[in-house]
Design a protein that fits this description.
Organism: Aquamicrobium ahrensii
GO molecular function, one term: protein histidine kinase activity
Radius of gyration: 22 Å
Keywords: Kinase, Membrane, Phosphoprotein, Transferase, Transmembrane, Transmembrane helix, Two-component regulatory system
Protein name: histidine kinase
Helix content: 40-55%
Number of strands: 7
Largest sheet: 5 strands, mixed
Catalytic activity: ATP + protein L-histidine = ADP + protein N-phospho-L-histidine
Number of helices: 7
Bound molecules: adenosine-5'-diphosphate
Amino acid sequence: ERVYRVTASAVGHGSRLHVLLFKDQSEARRIDRMRADFIANASHEMRTPLASIAGFIETLRGPARNDPAAREQFLQIMQNQTGRMARLIDDMLSLSRLEMKPYLKPGARVDVRQVVESVVDSLGPLAKESDLVIERDFADGPMETPGDRDELYQVFENLVENACKYGRDGDRIVVSIARSDKAPQPGIEVTVRDFGPGIPEEHIPRVTERFYRIDSETVQSRKGTGLGLAIVKHILTRHHGRLSIQSELGKGSAFTVYLPTN
Ligand code: ADP
């Protein structure tokens, strides 16, 4: 529909609009390619746990039939794999739900400090499990942004969960909120900082890609789908916000979310 509309208006406006038409078609092709890639990656990610479960069922029926210790171990692995599939499905549903409602409800405003506060409250126990404490450094004053509370909750939840999962070498996580009056417009900055292993420089631009996980022992041993930061980025784009990542090997990472105040 979009391509057709541009074609029609191009008739009266000369060559400049041909460029527009070309851009529009290539954008449509890019989106088609992204969809196809997503389906291919998603199918692959789902096949892996499924193949593992199928393999263990086979073994349980055959060689391990009369070995209670092996049976227990294999059932545990199968349970972990079903958990992995459930997480993948939840994250993929999150992404597709976001894509199906392209616009935010106009007029709604969200108190960012209150959202961050409730994320930190509810993830305190998770941090404790990893021997981490979450420190708060919250500035005073109004911290409202236009947007959707549940979506922003998901943004901060993902970032603090990641800090808990990947920041274990440190002893704390620091969550700070401040007003930012930097150009191009005033806004709110929320930073989630951990003192874990950090992210190798070449991976930093890629961690927000769908299904991207760093191929290290620590990362692979933590539960995850590689979709968390892709969801974060998607939500922030809808909110006219940004994510910036600073990380230093052996020192930790800081994920900063910028949200406009109007
Ligand atoms: P997931 O956590 O499900 O793997 P994410 O999209 O949330 O997926 O993160 C992608 C990858 O980025 C992670 O697998 C990890 O390799 C890296 N990463 C994210 N947050 C951190 C962090 N705080 N410290 C180090 N690495 C991180």
